[in-house]
């Protein structure tokens, strides 16, 4: 007896069907959970207007941790309307409600890893763009980690730049 | 390159246990229930070891603060099957907690019993969880932990010195136990630097290393008037 080619077998078609449906559902309709930002911050516009990274992300150069901007930082420019954007209006809505902007931190290293911005930027001479990529092209706030947060990426860069790879410099 | 070492003057030590408390708080060492502690499952990177000598009424007690001795030839690192522990070029016996699989070979290999296993999920009752040190991770259940010589303090001290464009000076980097010692019985520094206080004390005739006959070459050096040295029989 001659066997039918496998792509005509019912189990194969069934598998293919479920795979296609799953791909659609999980890939598009139901994307992986990621932090949603409270307002659509536009990096590109801010950088084009001459703002630097540490103007908002204080500590990103000379402290261990870079920070997310607080309401005060935003209100330094946005106390009055600068544009007609409805997203900008949200800042003053937060201020009126007496609430901080609940930014979701998209990029983080695991709890057992010690990462110091000061060591990398101020002392190591790296630029923000080296890890975080071209933020000046982003018109939406990041929902996924911006920059390499895997050990492979750390080790690769350390090897390229001939930096010490001693485990406990990062693992704590 | 420095070779970090510690000197503990047993004549000055009052066994107040401030070093033990400082170590626990600095390094987020979890608390265990009394019944677990009775089973020998307490975690304490630094213990003041009591040793009772003689019979009543001629009794004497000696106390020995015992951190990880950071041996130059550590038996614990040779048995690790996953490379979670090793010795840094500066002589610190390191442990990468995230790498540890909890096989406890090292716990058994250490002749000083300075490696401790996390038998339980780390617990910080009351407000203790608010007082955790953000520079040190909390080790999960099933991982072996040990004294790191407050490695995070070395990292920070070095970063500070580098930012101020000067070399690391003596006293910039002190582990929590050394810093807290109210009797100043603990000294810490670079054993390689002949002018450092620890190197000077390590050369003194009072200096001895604990269980030196094992050949582990500890970098924690004790100072005493001789009663700790020699064999068990000689001491009695």
Structure description:
The complex is a heterodimer of chains A (172) and B (236). Chain A has 172 residues and is mainly α. Helices cover 41% and strands 0% of the residues of chain A. Chain A contains eight helices and no strands. The longest helix of chain A has 20 residues, at 10-29. Chain A is flat. With 236 residues, chain B is α+β, with helices and mostly antiparallel strands. Chain B has one domain (4-235): Alpha-Beta Plaits, CATH 3.30.70.20. Helix content of chain B is 22%, strand content 17%. Chain B has helices at residues 18-26, 34-38, 75-78, 105-109, 151-163, 176-180, 197-202, 232-235, and strands at residues 4-9, 47-53, 60-66, 85-87, 93-95, 116-117, 144-145, 186-190, 207-208, 220-223. The model of chain B has no long low-confidence stretch (mean pLDDT 90). Chain A binds chain B through residues 62, 110-114, 116, 118-119, 122-123, 166-169, 171-172, and chain B through 86, 88-89, 92, 94-99, 135-138, 148, 151-152, 155, 159, 162-163.
Summarize the structure.
By secondary structure, chain A is an all-alpha fold. Chain A has helices at residues 10-29, 43-48, 53-56, 71-78, 86-96, 117-123, 128-132, 151-160.
Note the run of SSEs of chain A as H and E. Answer: HHHHHHHH
Count of helical segments of chain A?
8
What amount of the residues of chain A lies in strands?
A: under 5%
The appropriate CATH architecture of chain B is 2-Layer Sandwich
Q: State the end-to-end distance of chain A.
A: 65 Å
CATH topology of chain B: Alpha-Beta Plaits
What is the element layout, followed by pairings?
The complex is a heterodimer of chains A (172) and B (236).
Chain A: H1 10-29, H2 43-48, H3 53-56, H4 71-78, H5 86-96, H6 117-123, H7 128-132, H8 151-160
Chain B: E1 4-9, H1 18-26, H2 34-38, E2 47-53, E3 60-66, H3 75-78, E4 85-87, E5 93-95, H4 105-109, E6 116-117, E7 144-145, H5 151-163, H6 176-180, E8 186-190, H7 197-202, E9 207-208, E10 220-223, H8 232-235
Parallel strand pairs in B: 1-10
Antiparallel strand pairs in B: 1-8, 2-3, 4-5, 6-7, 9-10
């Amino acid at each position: 007896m001659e066997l039918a080619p496998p792509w005509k077998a019912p189990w194969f078609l069934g598998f293919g069907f479920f795979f296609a449906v799953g791909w659609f559902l999980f890939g598009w309709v139901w994307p992986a959970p990621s932090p949603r930002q409270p307002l659509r911050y536009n990096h590109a516009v801010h950088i084009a207007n001459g703002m630097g990274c540490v103007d908002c992300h204080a500590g990103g150069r000379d402290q261990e941790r870079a920070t997310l901007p607080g309401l005060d930082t935003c209100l330094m420019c946005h106390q009055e309307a600068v544009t007609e954007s409805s997203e900008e209006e949200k800042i003053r809505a937060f201020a009126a409600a007496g609430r901080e902007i609940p930014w979701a931190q998209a990029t983080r290293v695991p709890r057992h890893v010690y990462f110091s911005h000061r060591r990398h930027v101020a002392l190591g001479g790296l630029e923000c763009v080296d890890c975080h990529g071209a933020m000046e092209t982003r018109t939406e706030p990041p929902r996924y980690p911006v920059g390499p947060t895997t050990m492979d990426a750390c080790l690769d860069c350390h090897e390229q730049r001939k930096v010490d790879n001693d485990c406990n410099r990062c693992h704590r | 390159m420095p070779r970090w070492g510690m000197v503990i003057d047993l004549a000055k030590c009052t066994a107040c246990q401030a070093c033990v408390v400082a170590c626990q708080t600095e390094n987020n060492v979890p608390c265990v229930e009394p019944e677990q502690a009775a089973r020998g499952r307490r975690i304490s990177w630094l213990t003041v070891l009591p040793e009772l000598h003689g019979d009543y009424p001629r009794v004497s007690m000696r106390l020995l603060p015992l951190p990880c001795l950071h041996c130059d030839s550590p038996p614990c690192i040779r048995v690790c099957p996953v490379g979670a522990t090793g010795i840094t070029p500066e002589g610190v016996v390191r442990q990468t907690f995230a790498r540890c699989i909890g096989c406890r070979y090292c716990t058994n290999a250490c002749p000083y019993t300075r490696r401790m296993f996390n038998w339980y999920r780390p617990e910080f009752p009351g407000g203790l969880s608010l007082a955790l040190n953000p520079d040190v991770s909390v080790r999960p259940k099933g991982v072996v932990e040990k004294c790191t010589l407050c490695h995070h303090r070395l990292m920070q001290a070095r970063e500070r010195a580098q930012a101020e464009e000067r070399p690391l000076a003596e006293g910039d980097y002190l582990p929590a136990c050394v810093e807290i010692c109210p009797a100043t019985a603990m000294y810490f520094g670079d054993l390689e630097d002949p002018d450092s206080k620890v190197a000077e004390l390590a050369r003194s005739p009072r200096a001895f290393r604990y269980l030196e006959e094992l050949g582990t070459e500890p970098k924690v050096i004790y100072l005493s008037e001789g009663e700790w040295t020699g064999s068990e029989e000689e001491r009695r």
